[in-house]
Amino acid sequence: MRDFLKGSSFKVLAITVVVLLGLIIYTASAGGSLIASLLGFVSAPMQSVATEVTDNVTEFLDLDGLSKDELKGMVSALQEENSQLHDKLIDYTQTKQENERLKVQLHISEQAPETEMRSASVIGRDPNDPFSGFSIGIGTLSGVSEGDPVITDKGLVGIVSRAYATTSKVDCLLSEDVKVAAVSIDKQESGLIGCNITMASSGLLRLSYLKGETAIAEGDIITTSGEGGVYPANLKIGTVQSVEKSETDVSKYAVIRPFEDLSSVKEVQVIISFPGQGEDDAVTAEPGPDDSEEDGE
Amino acid sequence: MRDLNRIIRSLAYILELLVLFMLQETPGLLPPVYGVRPVLVLPAAAVIAMLEDETGAMAFGVAAGLFCDFGYSGVLGFHALVMGVLCFGVSLLVRAFLQVNPVTAVLVGIGVLGVMFGAQWLFFYFFNYSSPGYALRIHYIPKYFYTLIFVPLLYLVNKALAESLPSGA
């Protein structure tokens, strides 16, 4: 034992432990580090290629794997959805025209869009992450920074938690670390989107802090409210699947099914700047009445 | 010549860890079982530790741990520290008391992966998030067994590599 303690290998072990403890303290306090960026430089290009090849193969196999009946069912479901969307489009067009007329009458000028986005591919999903976080192939060199919202065409998916030179880590909405101020566009009631491991395993979210007599019901669409300036307003999140009573108090919470399948996202957009970013007040274009109490992010 | 073999073998191990890291990180490549996917670099480092001296074993353990740190937490050093110490211990243990064979590899895998995933659950999940018991049941334990399946295969690959590029005692 004494020989072992005096041996060179034990000294190397001791030095390594001290260095790694220093590294833990440094990266835990300072965030992104040079080593992580270097690892990203090495691994990101290879991960991108591997992911692209896998995606192509998977897509090919998925298409071939569908039976005739499944394809027929899919077509009929899409036709039905298309018909419903046509009806909604008519409503939307009429509402938009009315909105334009009212804007002219009330002399409201539209703000120029200032949202700036960067496209990115999902290049990695770490098997150690229980909340389906992922890595994207752009980083600080592309203007991405920690706290930037990440979206797809279907809606919000998460937030950049770590930004390195050429890669970034994204915490998705299924993570307990992510909280989003949200609102029901139908009922104008707000709450806080969050998640826990039990809901994350089913791919669902939780809209908490709803009033006991909430009007939110199944099928309502939930979007970001823009409160806190962390996320832009009006980003789609999901639809209400059910409304339940809170386990701890008289409030209620809604179970939300996200529009996007958060565990299999492949292409995303990172919002690197948007109007109202970092501001505490709500980012809303219309001067509506304060009819709801918002929870902060 | 033997030193050259050792250098080539070390480079091959590093390349192996890099490839395994990419395999485990690539979405959709390894099929999820019960919603989890295996962490391949950890058993690879454990079986390499059986075949190398303690300093080399620790170095590859640290490398595998750094890959895990980079892929998961962003806090570099945690997995590297645990894997470095574990691989150092495995190398010493195997040289002093155990034979290098597939059964030993599986036993080493059971121990190393158990300690690593246990530490991961304790330090990254238990103190930070809700329902740790549920997380252990639906994420960490399935991941442990799924990763364990790869130990014999990785042992055979690395054993063959070590025998084809032997170094001096």
Fold blueprint:
The complex is a heterodimer of chains A (297) and B (169).
Chain A: H1 2-6, H2 8-30, H3 34-65, H4 68-106, E1 116-124, E2 134-136, E3 149-152, E4 155-163, E5 168-172, E6 180-184, E7 190-194, H5 197-200, E8 205-210, E9 221-224, E10 236-245, E11 252-258, E12 267-273
Chain B: H1 2-25, H2 41-51, H3 54-71, H4 78-97, H5 102-126, H6 132-148, H7 151-164
Helix pairs in contact in B: 1-2, 1-3, 2-3, 2-4, 2-5, 2-7, 3-4, 4-5, 5-6, 5-7
Task: Please characterize this protein's 3D structure.
The complex is a heterodimer of chains A (297) and B (169). With 297 residues, chain A is α+β, with helices and mostly antiparallel strands. Chain A has two domains: 2-60, no CATH class; 116-296, Rod shape-determining protein MreC, domain 1 (Thrombin, subunit H, Beta Barrel), CATH 2.40.10.340. Chain A has helices at residues 2-6, 8-30, 34-65, 68-106, 197-200; strands at 116-124, 134-136, 149-152, 155-163, 168-172, 180-184, 190-194, 205-210, 221-224, 236-245, 252-258, 267-273. Chain A has a six-stranded antiparallel beta barrel with strand order 1-2-5-4-3-12. In chain A, strands 6-7-8-11-10-9 form a six-stranded antiparallel β-barrel. In chain A, a hairpin with a 6-residue loop joins strand 10 (236-245) and strand 11 (252-258). Chain A is globular and about 85 Å long. With 169 residues, chain B is mainly alpha-helical. The longest helix of chain B has 25 residues, at 102-126. Chain B has helices spanning 2-25, 41-51, 54-71, 78-97, 102-126, 132-148, 151-164. Chain B has seven helices and no strands. Chain B has a single domain, classed as Arp2/3 complex 21 kDa subunit ARPC3 (Orthogonal Bundle), CATH 1.10.1760. The model of chain B has no long low-confidence stretch (mean pLDDT 90). The chains are: A alpha+beta (297), B mainly alpha (169).
